[in-house]
TrEMBL record:
Keywords: ATP-binding, Nucleotide-binding, Transport. One of its GO terms (molecular function) is ATP binding. Transmembrane segments: none annotated. Gene3D superfamilies: P-loop containing nucleotide triphosphate hydrolases. It comes from Dactylosporangium maewongense. SMART domains: AAA. CDD domains: ABC_DR_subfamily_A. Residues 10-232 form the ABC transporter domain. The lineage of its organism: Bacteria, Bacillati, Actinomycetota, Actinomycetes, Micromonosporales. This is ABC transporter ATP-binding protein. Belongs to the ABC transporter superfamily.
Length: 280
């Protein structure tokens, strides 16, 4: 029996969004396979939030096309969970009331999952959300988004305002939830250390345009560091080049001489090279 492959979690073609004369996103073409944890990175104003809002159906494109899980954005809200940058919760509602509200609004609500996550996080069901710490509010928002059992979780810089310990806890909960649900997650962040820790797919935006996209392992394999690239090398920026190491450069030198020698490129180096290239 033949089975059709699942559609991409997110697919865009020439996606563009303008606000008056300002172009927030330009000619964005992407294909995110299902089952990935995607890091969406770029400086402030790069178009990250615009792309995520288009994917959620919160705004409409100026031109181009976008599909989420094979459908038009906003048509299957039960399959998409969203956590905004300010991790919104209702200050006057208790943790338990958030879960009851989630159950009433989402037909596929998994009460057992929600209760288990609240217990594991040590959240007091009787505590009002307004009295929770920033990290606890972020965890509650993630729990509510994940308990609807979405196929895609979209998170717009949810850890930007959290301290390192709270951020680490949020990312751990995210990975645990995505693994249990078998979902795809798109995590917008400007913290490269967080992306490197949890993501296996990468999208780099700068100036409203896609600079780089693909599985992290494949992208790292396709780039190298060459401090003195020969003429004709495909240089991204600085010492980062696309393609194999230039003749005469080897991994032995990288190990012997440290980070400045020719050899594999680190994820942070790769991202910064494309961001600097996109800024020119």
């Amino acid at each position: 029996m033949f089975t059709s492959a699942p559609p991409p979690a997110l697919e865009t073609e020439g996606l563009t969004r303008r606000y008056g004369r300002r172009t927030a996103l330009a000619d964005c073409t992407l294909r995110v396979p299902p089952g990935r944890v995607v890091g969406l990175v770029g400086p402030n104003g790069a178009g990250k939030s615009t792309l995520l809002q288009l994917a959620c159906g919160l705004i409409a494109p100026t031109s181009g096309a976008v599909q989420v899980l094979g459908a038009r954005p906003g048509t299957r809200l039960d399959r998409v969970g969203f956590v905004a940058q300010d991790t919104p919760v209702y200050a006057t509602l208790t943790v338990a009331e958030h879960l009851r509200l989630g159950a009433r609004l989402n037909p596929g609500w998994d009460a057992a999952f929600a209760q288990r996550r609240v217990g594991a996080l040590g959240l007091d069901p009787k505590q009002r959300a307004g009295r929770l710490s920033g990290g606890q509010r972020a965890q509650l928002a993630l729990t509510v988004a994940a308990a609807k059992r979405p196929e895609l979780l979209i998170l717009d810089e949810p850890v930007a305002a959290l301290d390192p310990l709270a951020r680490e806890g949020f990312l751990r909960t995210l990975i645990e939830s995505v693994t249990e649900l078998g979902a795809t997650a798109i995590l917008s962040s400007h913290l490269l250390s967080d992306v490197e820790r949890v993501c296996d797919h990468l999208i780099v935006l700068a100036g409203g345009r896609v600079q780089l996209a693909g599985d992290v392992t494949a992208l790292l394999d396709a780039h190298h560091r060459a401090p003195a690239p020969p003429p004709g090398a495909d240089v991204v920026h600085g010492a980062v080049v696309r393609g194999p190491l230039p003749a005469g450069d080897g991994l032995h030198g990288a190990r012997a001489e440290g980070a400045s020698a020719a050899g594999p490129v680190r994820l942070e180096e790769l991202v910064l090279a494309y961001l600097r290239d996109g800024a020119r």
